[in-house]
Give the backbone structure.
Amino acid sequence: MYRVSPFVRRFAWALLGGAGVATVWVNLSPASYYDMIEWRFLDHERLSALPFAQVLPETFLLTPVTLVSDALMALFLFFVGKELWEALVLERGALTGRQALLPAWAVAGGLLGAVLVWGLWSGLFETAEEAGPWTGWPVPLGSDIIIGYVIARAVFGAGHPALHLALLTSIASSLAGLLLAGLADVGFGLSLLWLLLPVGATLGAWLAVGRPDPDAPERVRRRSLALWPWLLAGAASWIGVAAAGLPPALGLLPVIPAIPHADRAFGLFAEAEEFLHDPLNRLSHLLVKPLAVILFAFGLTRGGIDLGALAPTTGSVLAALWIGKPLGFMTGALLAALVFRLDLPRGVRLSDLGRVALISGVGFTLPLLTLDSALPGGAMTEAARMGAALSLGLGPLVILLARMRRTAPQDPRRPAKT
């Protein structure tokens, strides 16, 4: 198992640092904080004289919040989406072939469990007049990819197969949850025709420079390593996804399958990938340093927790994340193993799977991306933001339980585990 690059932990500190600064700021001077994150760079009225203004929705706003959440976080999801894609399709990928089936059932079970517990809990305890029991159900779907990795590494140690399983399932549930949230917020009308733009841009770039041709002359092969066609395709893809009404943060994902990539996987965020020069890995390497700044900015603009925002919605988030998602995760995994005879991933025991399920209940980054579209705003949104932040408290508990198990005295009548 290859080592995971240390920059992943730096991402976590950048995210938490931004959220910490935002939390102090919003509680000491809320007016100046909200003025900062909602300051308008551009809006529909200022652009109305331009020819392309008719394409923009009347609600178009460019603020620090929308810039970071819609545009810059698309780079982060491209970065993690690349890892999931390689795990699925490359030789020695962690989820190639049948290896993907049980984790897929676990992810689906976790999503369903989170939604069901959200609806049940909200129906029993939600008091906001503007909310029904299912209002906001997409909020707990996503897990926290970066902070979840730090927790999983402390639980399993570096190089354990369950560490990679925790990363892959958190990426998959986060991307699936964000997509479901977008589909719930947009009608299947003419706006989805905009999805032809990412399809066409990606296909065009692949036909021009991406098709593998071992008999091509050297100059053609060198041209296939160029990055600019994929930058253009990515820009067109982002515009098409955003115009279709789906979360713009997903806008770069359609391009990933077409970009030339390595022949084999070295593991998630593996240090060995730093020596690869295919376009997909080069684009990923270029994002490493900017992403630390982006995640700090995301924490600063989305992670400010109003300490007085505790409300029933906070409990809905925590119940869905701490109860619904882990139970659904394990139910899906056990159903796949017992009914469909699917094996656990190599090197992962049932107890490891249970810890991965608990770690999936930590949700911060991706849930925060869905707040504005899933909830009516105001007090409910701030209460849900607090719930997402409090869900991080599950991490130390899982770490403590894992260490207690490792240090527990062994029954001398039982043989030692090897």
